[in-house]
Amino acid sequence: MDRNIPKTKVIPKTFYAFSRKATKLHSALRRINALIRKLQLAEDAMNSQYINQEVEEISRLSQIEIGTRITSSSTAEEIKDKIKELMAHQKAIYRARKLENNMAHKQRIEKNIQKRFSNFSSNTKKMIDSILGRYKAPVTLNNIIHENYNTMEPKEVKQEIKEHFRK
User: Fold this and answer.
1) Residue 2 pLDDT
2) I want to staple 78 with a disulfide (CB 3.0 to 4.6 A). Which of 11, 14, 74, 85 is the partner?
3) Domain of 151?
4) What is the pLDDT of residues 110-128, one digit of tens each?
């Protein structure tokens, strides 16, 4: 009877997590982009209360004081001026987010350099394995399926694995 343990591939997934401040700046940038787009496309008067609430939220998220307020009696020319002011704030938020992300990226690089240096001085085996690309991915088996029965007990699964690799 031929017993096979199925093989699986494990692919690492990269997850980028930035600082809380960078995340807030990104959220503010998304909101200000949407607000500018809505103001540019709106031919008739929009809800000034909604616009001012969005501006307040953008100010809170970006920690930048935005004095741009729109009233219900604002003319088209005044709205164009307000859009230009919002665009200036948009550029400032974009630059701040970019700086924040670059600082976080540089800190990660510096941390990895320090880690590599400490491995080189104290844990040469780990350093050599890393350079040569020697890595053993852990394999987790929860059950073994046979034609007649299934095994889910951890001790039985370990025993089956030992028998499989002994042959």
Assistant:
1) 57
2) 74
3) 137-167
4) 999 998 888 888 988 888 8
